[in-house]
Amino acid sequence: MADAEEEFHEFVRTRLPGLRRAAYLLCGDWTRGDDIVQRALTDAYVRWRRIRRADNVDAYVRTILVHRFVDEQRRGWARVRLLDRLPDGPAEDAALQGLPAGLDLRDALAELPPRQRAVLVLRFYYDMSVQQTAAALRCAPGTVKSQTAAALGAMRRRLAPIDTGSTR
């Protein structure tokens, strides 16, 4: 029992930064992302004896993370914001630093529906195949392809340079 528990603690120590970044990319908010990660890791801890025998433990936990995100989006209170003061500002993500000032991938990603956002994060942040993404989201590969196409189209429209109509 102690070995399994120590193995879980080591897993969390080494994977937590990546899980936090993925949750942030999914929901666009560090605090909500931390809540999603906490719920996902709680689920993983409860099932750790089975999870640790999986062929790909990281993929298993990523799947749990995405399911917690999708579950949260289904709840009505996920859209409620109770703030007693304004936040200081968004935390910087090292993976997104250095982008041109007018190009904000985070805003464009946040405008996508949750399922499309999840598909993009799994496919392009985690570099998962269509089949792996379909398994993680419990849907057909065709659904992953159509959601990816729709999400990328929306991202392209959102991030396209604005045509000012002037000629040179």
From TrEMBL:
Residues 12-77 form the RNA polymerase sigma-70 region domain. It comes from the Bacteria. Keywords: DNA-binding, Sigma factor, Transcription, Transcription regulation. Pfam families: Sigma70_r2, Sigma70_r4_2. The keyword Transcription applies. Residues 104-152 form the RNA polymerase sigma factor 70 region 4 type domain. Belongs to the sigma-70 factor family. ECF subfamily. This is SigE family RNA polymerase sigma factor.
